[in-house]
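Memo to structure team: turn this sequence into structure tokens by end of day. - J.P.
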Amino acid sequence: METDLSSVATQHSYRVLWAQVVLQAKADLENEPIGSILFNQAAAFFVSRGEWAESRAIVADCLEIHPDELTRSGERWIAERRQQEGLAPEVAPAPRPKTPLVLPRLEAIPAPTAASQRLARKNTRRTVNPFQMKPVSASL
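Reply from structure team:
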């Protein structure tokens, strides 16, 4: 059975599916005990980084909204739930100071000329084994 992902009905079905995922995560934030696995996973879906952020971006794309809208909504729902439970709001992490990124200094090295390559080949002894191990000096 072939499915045409470009059909309007299929796109609508996927959109409804992902809307239900978001609504289930919201329900978990509202109803599950704070600190439970389901609550923590729902909170992670809305505010965490890494793979959670990638998943949030995919869901947001299917819902045709920006991922930051899901993040803001999730933060608001988490704050409302903490307030209902009489808990202090979560403290947002302090922004890191903006320090300029120090890059290594790059220096251009001139490419070898044809004359210098010929001279290097002439001065190389052909009987030398290039893979021969050189003794390590014990002058540590």
